[in-house]
Amino acid sequence: MEDLPADEMTMARAWLHHLRESAIFKLEDLDPTQLRWRPTPTANSLGAIVVHLGYAERLWLRVLFAGETMDMTWRQHMFDIPDGWSADDVVAFYRAETSQADTVLDAATSFDEPAASGLRPTTLRWVVDHLLEETARHVGHLDITRELLDGRTGR
User: Fold this and answer.
1) Which of 25, 41, 86, 126 could make a disulfide contact with 155, Cβ separation 3.0–4.6 Å?
2) Is-above-0.85 flag for pTM?
């Protein structure tokens, strides 16, 4: 609720949650063809954008900030929807990624914490602000693409 005072971490996480749910909302009731439809040859589909957002949270919070070691071959597929995936599969993937990202955030005590990975000198504040910007920008793309696809607007 916007009229309740909140510290920086609480406010940022509330906005991130809102933006995540907005992205998921844009996939409601899509069939496999609609999930992959692109408004232009160089644009991304609704499903591809949400897959990308899941991978972005993995990259920024788990790999770059928390220093989690993992096979990084998934970076070659950050905008790819696996064959056979439905909108429900994309949402499940995104929810799993955001849940793991939230585990990293739950362990943080300050936005001033430095990244543990050493791959990029940054802080949790910068990472979260970047994810807010990245998610908000892509939710705008989702809004436009969904309206072009079938006229659905909202959220």
Assistant:
1) 25
2) yes
In three-state secondary structure terms, 84 is: coil
User: Is the Cα torsion angle 69, 74, 75, 78 positive or negative in sign?
Assistant: negative
How far apart are the C-alpha atoms of 135 and 25, rounded to whole Å? 13
Q: Report, in angstroms and rounded to the nearest whole number, the Rg of the chain calculated over CA atoms.
A: 16
Residue spans of alpha helices (H) in the chain: 8-25, 32-36, 46-57, 87-107, 124-150
Token pair recorded at residue 31: 């069939």
Q: What are phi and psi of 123, to 5 degrees?
A: -125, 165
Torsion over CA: 125, 100, 26, 22 (sign): negative
- Write down the residue that tokens 């897959």 correspond to: 51
Mean pLDDT in each 10-residue stretch from start to end of the chain (155 residues)?
Answer: 83 96 97 97 97 97 96 94 97 98 97 94 97 98 97 85
CA distances (Å), 128 to each of 65, 82, 150, in order?
Answer: 10, 27, 32
SS3 83: coil
Name the one residue in this structure whose structure tokens are 């430095």: 114
